[in-house]
Amino acid sequence: MKTINAHDAIGEALAEEMRRDSTVLAFGEGIATKRKALVDEFGRRRVRNTPLAEGIIAGTAAGAAATGLRPVVDLLFAPFMAFSMEEIVNSAGKLRFISGGQFSFPLVAMAMTGAGWSVGAQHNHNLEAWFVHSPGLKVVMPSTPADFKGLLKAAIRDDNPVVFFSDIGLLYVPGEVPDGDHVVPIGKAATRRAGTDVTLVSYGKTVPSCLKAADALASDGISAEVIDLRSLKPWDEEAVLASVRKTGRLVVVHEASRTAGFGAEVAATVAEKAFDALRAPVVRLAGPDAPPAASYPLEQAFVPQPDLIALSARQLVGRAARVSSPAPVLVAAGA
Amino acid sequence: MGTTPAEIRPEALLEEMILIRRFEERTSATLTSGGFMGTCTCVGQEASAVGVVSALGPNDLILTNHRSAGHLLARGADPGRILAEVMGRSTGYCKGKSGTLHVSVKELGVILTSTIVGGELSLAPGVGLSVSMKGEDAVVACFFGDGAACEGVFHESMNLAAVWNLPVLFVCENNQWQAFVHRKETMLGDHIAPRAAGYGVEWEVVDGNDVEAVRDAAARAVARIRETGKPFLLETFTYRQRGHFEPDDQSYVDPSELASWKARDPIALLTAALVERGTLTAEGVAAIEARVSERLDAAFAFASSSPYPDVAELTTDVYA
Ligand SMILES: Cc1ncc(C[n+]2csc(CCOP(=O)(O)OP(=O)(O)O)c2C)c(N)n1
Ligand SMILES: [Mg+2]
Questions:
Q1: Are strands A108-113 and A70-77 parallel, antiparallel or unpaired?
Q2: Which residues of A touch B159 (CB under 8 A)?
């Protein structure tokens, strides 16, 4: 074990996979400048700065992937992916099917998102659901340095296009990372805390918020189970269903806007497959349907906070008056 | 391997062009009478397809656009399997999942037919990158239209291929039309190729209806790419003689423009030249037509007797 942050965990994953497999290469707007250690070890043919052109960066990754390379591309901030939607969605995601299985697209498209740096709505937009809804793609969003490393290594080894979201708020938070070839399988959730009264399902920076809420709930005698999805496509339905069958109550928490966000998928699946087990309505806590603001207090208020998560859980177990029903407060109290 | 194109007799080029022409005509007739729509034919542009593809070596790779039947047939694709794909049959090159608009044929190095205009331009540098990272000497031919040259990705693709020294032969088939809009409405100047100069890329414009001229220009361009490792932009100046897709009454087309281009039909031009050179006779032409007709009879029989894919194919090949 060693303690590093997610940014360095990403660097380790890239270095280890590039060492292991000579077809892995990385390019993006400044990656060769920012990750100098990679350039020193692997050279400028495998670690490349690109022109400012997200469409061709993603398209080049798709073309290279179809013909034997395993590119990792850094698209910087998630909203810039709007410029590469065509290449990721129409090419990387669809061309395997369209070609009748003749080609595969083993690439990783990385981008940062989320509150934390007060960068405003054109740099901060949790748009992961766009890609979850697109066929042929996989989507991951880790919350710990160990998962940043392990999921990135799995994404690079995967024969499919994987969209890898880095939550800005988590990039420089240190955490323990196992030694050795640490690979986290795509599609497996992690139970961060076991509990019996209510299930809190989340991913990204709202996972630590759920853990804080679970601490607060514990002091009230409420036992919360916290599940970190880590992968959104494929996602670990079984882990969530098993937990809900145990607790009978579910709160889904994410930073992305509420309407048609990933929480809707989780809620619908639980309603379809574990309706009998539910002892209370499913609750979604999500960002509002608005562009995230830059101002720090507003940016934080966009994100469901531990107090709100704990309050919702208490309501579900009947230990607090309902403030709104069936789906409570959308926006956390904030500053 | 395959650094220079094999010698090909002009009569063989003619036969390929006639195969493409008859394939497109019969496909259109069959599909529209059968209630299908949508093939985008390359009638009038056969010299561009045959001229360029015949200048490629066996290891070279191709990406193309929705008007790709000519490129596929010139590359040696089986007309029966293309047709099966067009008809949505399981024996098609893509098991019927592509249809007419996205046919790829890995075994022939045809990586993509993109019906997203410009999609071929976005993938081509990556294919060139693979070739160059693996130290191969293949050239990546990327066919796109004058319309695609209006997309932003044209710029991104040319620029990246130039700064990364990627072995891409960009082939702009300037057929004067961008679906239902004449290119004169969408761009100033008659040609796309000179834009290459701004990227530091070599270029040439060639008469796209003269198959021998196209083949020579493409062979020069390919040789240049193999020599320099850098991209090249070749523009074939030609004309889309039929509609954007089938059926299309072309009521929006200026009849005198169409007539003037039909007077320079690529198949008629080569036929006349070969007759004049004394290497082809009327009987020779009839023999070509008979061979082509026989091949297409077999292709249509194969495709139309092929089964549709099983419904289970709906969700296969989504993930590797
Ligand atoms: C991104 C995109 N925009 C629009 C279309 C609709 N469309 C299909 S072909 C075409 C014209 C393309 O013109 P050009 O690139 O010159 O190719 P040509 O059809 O002349 O061969 C258009 C507008 C499309 N398929 N994709
Ligand atoms: Mg055109």
A1: parallel
A2: 51, 53, 56
Q: Which domain holds residue A204?
A: 190-334
Counting beta carbons within 10 angstroms of the beta carbon of residue A199, is it exposed (0 to 12), middle (13 to 18) or buried (19 or more)?
buried
Residues A200 and A158 reside in one and the same domain: no
User: Three-state SS string across B168-215, please?
Assistant: EEEEEEECCEECCEEHHHCCCCCCCHHHHHHHCCEEEEEECCCHHHHH
Looking at the fold, whether A249 and A148 belong to one and the same domain comes out as: no
Q: How far is it, in rounded angstroms, from Cα A209 to Cα A203? A: 10
Environment class of A330 (CB within 10 Å of its CB; exposed 0-12, middle 13-18, buried 19+): middle
Which residues, chain by chain, have CB under 5 Å from ion ligand 2?
Answer: B 145-147, 175, 177
**B 270-289 near A (Cβ less than 8 A):** none
A209 and A160 in one domain? Answer: no
Residue B202 sits at the vertex; the CA angle it makes with B179 and B178, to the nearest 5 degrees, is 5
Q: What is the ipTM of this complex?
A: 0.92
Distance, CA of B106 to CA of A107 (rounded, Å)? 19
pLDDT at residue B1 greater than cutoff 70: no
Judge whether A91 and A68 are in contact, CB under 8 Å. Answer: no
Task: Report residue A131 as tokens.
Answer: 């890609």
Contact residues of ligand 1, CB 6 A cut-off: B 40, 65-67, 115-117, 145-148, 175, 177-179, 240
User: Using one digit for the tens of pLDDT, what is the confidence trace for B80-102?
Assistant: 999 999 999 999 999 999 999 99
* Judgement on whether residues A172 and A212 belong to the same structural domain of the protein: no
**Nearest Cβ partner of B320 from A61, A69, A104?**
A104
The answer to whether residues A218 and A142 belong to one domain is no
**Is the residue at A182 inside a domain?**
no
> Does A63 contact B157 at a Cβ distance shorter than 8 Å?
no
Q: Give me the pLDDT at residue A327, please.
A: 42
- Most A CBs within 10 A among B89, B97, B105, B129, hence the mutation to make, goes to B129
Q: What is the mean pLDDT of residues B58-68?
A: 98
Same domain, A283 and A172: no
Domain CATH for A12: 3.40.50.970
Active site residues of A: 123
Give the helix/strand (H/E) hosting A115: none
Q: Are residues A173 and A212 in the same domain?
A: no
Model pTM? 0.94
For residue B105, the one-letter residue type is: V
Are residue A144 and residue A6 in the same domain, yes or no? Answer: yes
